[in-house]
Amino acid sequence: MAGTAEERARYWQYEELPGVDLLRARYIRKEFVRHTHEHFVIAAITEGMEVFHHRGSDQYAGAGALALVNPDTPHTGRAGVPEGWRYGAVYPAPGLVAEIAAETTHIRGTPGFVSPVLDDPYAVALVHQVLRAADEGNALAADTLLRVVVTRLLRLNGGALPRREVRTAGARTAARARAVLEERMADPPSLQKLAADLGSSPFALLRAFRDAYGMPPHAWLTDARVRRARRLLDAGTPPAQAAVAVGFTDQSHLSRHFSRIVGVPPGAYQRERKNVQDARSRLFLPSAAWYDRQLSQTRTYTPTAEESPTPPSYGTPSESGSPSDSPGSPSG
């Protein structure tokens, strides 16, 4: 299977789900470097297995499980079996998750996920129903099902995130170093120069930065550059210009790191953003095909009325949509 299957991915937005990114992918040889997300990661595995390093240990998410990562939490990603893994993911903004938690749970404080892996085939099916509804342009279904799955996951695996407080001198130094790197992203100083300017030693700064942000300064800077490049691409900046603006040498340099963090190349990412902008002037209505598919896939599982006013199908959802790039490309 691993020798004949193709890697493919689509990373997009649906204009009726503001603040939410969507992904559908099949990866075999793909390896995500250590990185973070500004949004929550809710990844629903339907085939194979994903392994990701999270808070000091490897986590394994197989078919029927979800990989759950809180915002600004360093993690990696790779295949756990030779045939790779297939999954769909939603990336809701922290504000949206907080809004849902306040309305449907008793969590006090900033809500988040307690365990990085949760076995819940029904929630996996819900995530894929969100993606399918977005594909079909069914805003009511997409928004409803997204809120249902976030509520379910918070009730099963939610809690208040610990507050991050800068208490030590090392943590304060790390925060100052981060501010310098953000300001000088396109022209960062060396570790020795940065440490000297902050009144520290290179290794002391390195240890403090790792403790505070989960990765060394150079890895954090690459992650931050990709984040800023995404904002520029969202605003319509050509990939070549975005690459130089954030400190990469050229577009291929940006593409290499962008693909290893986001999952698709910057060109494919920006095309999907443009599609969303173009679609805002068009009216989306639920299609007959969408309703037919819901009826044909409905099974016996019946969630409570509080959980889901429109129960989705159970089982492995079908994958629709075309890949963002040619088969076998390192796009994803």
UniProtKB/TrEMBL annotation:
SUPFAM superfamilies: Homeodomain-like, Regulatory protein AraC. Coiled coil: none annotated. The keyword Cytoplasm does not apply. The keyword Magnesium does not apply. Residues 315-332 have a biased composition (Low complexity). Residues 295-332 are annotated as: Disordered. PROSITE patterns: HTH_ARAC_FAMILY_2 (PS01124). Residues 175-272 form the HTH araC/xylS-type domain. It comes from the Bacteria. Keywords: DNA-binding, Transcription, Transcription regulation. This is AraC family transcriptional regulator. The lineage of its organism: Bacteria, Bacillati, Actinomycetota, Actinomycetes, Kitasatosporales.
